[in-house]
């Protein structure tokens, strides 16, 4: 399973920061020749570099702090997906624009070179979004320790008692602790044990019956006679 921390601070995010500087230079030159519209897509690379810098600096300053769990993963997935989609739209319009520049080869080559950083950042965001999606799909449905279902729960059988669905599969242990099977008592075994104890109690009560006082001759006292059945 892909680690969330690995996706947040993936080494490829450093490339989005590095791509900012050549994209700034090439986009500025291209915009000066082809118009300011050509630099509109630069905002995507700028935001990508800012967010990547924030994530890497936050991880460096807080190496032991958690990463926010599922909510942060969803936000990062949405961010990477939207960034990749926005850059793809810009690249499509760029390629359409290049189709009409066949008479001016120098400007076409400059625009093509200026598109390289955008292609690189687009591929990075698409790849990281795919990693996060795989992380969502591979999340375990059951706890590795107690094997209880982490998502769905059945209705309560009685007030105050809840019964989670239990998987019978074997899961790998965490933190180097060996997996140990735990035998869970069943309802049938408890009922059999109660019946056995009740039967033993009844048999002990049935041993003593017909307690009759018997007079002892000449003493005026009675003797208790116990008849054992």
TrEMBL record:
The chain crosses the membrane at residues 12-33, 39-58, 70-98, 110-134. It comes from the Eukaryota. Keywords: Membrane, Transmembrane, Transmembrane helix. This is Uncharacterized protein. It comes from Clonostachys byssicola.
């Amino acid at each position: 399973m892909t680690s969330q921390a690995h996706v947040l601070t993936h080494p490829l995010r450093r490339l989005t920061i590095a791509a900012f500087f050549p994209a700034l230079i090439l986009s500025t030159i291209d915009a000066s020749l082809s118009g300011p519209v050509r630099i509109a897509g630069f905002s995507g690379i700028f935001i990508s570099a800012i967010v990547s810098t924030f994530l890497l600096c936050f991880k460096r300053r807080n190496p032991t702090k958690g990463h926010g769990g599922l909510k942060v993963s969803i936000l990062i997935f949405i961010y990477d997906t939207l960034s990749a989609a926005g850059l793809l739209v810009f690249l499509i319009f760029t390629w359409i624009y290049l189709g009409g520049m066949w008479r001016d080869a120098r400007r076409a080559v400059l625009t093509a070179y200026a598109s390289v950083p955008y292609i690189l950042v687009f591929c990075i965001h698409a790849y990281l979004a795919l990693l996060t999606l795989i992380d969502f799909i591979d999340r375990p449905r059951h706890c590795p320790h107690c094997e209880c279902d982490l998502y769905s729960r059945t209705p309560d059988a009685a007030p105050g008692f809840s019964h989670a669905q239990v998987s019978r599969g074997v899961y790998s242990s965490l933190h180097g602790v060996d997996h140990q099977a735990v035998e869970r008592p069943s309802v049938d075994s408890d009922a059999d044990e109660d019946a056995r104890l009740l039967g033993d109690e009844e048999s002990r009560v049935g041993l003593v019956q017909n307690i009759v006082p018997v007079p002892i001759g000449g003493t005026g006292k009675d003797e208790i006679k116990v008849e054992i059945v």
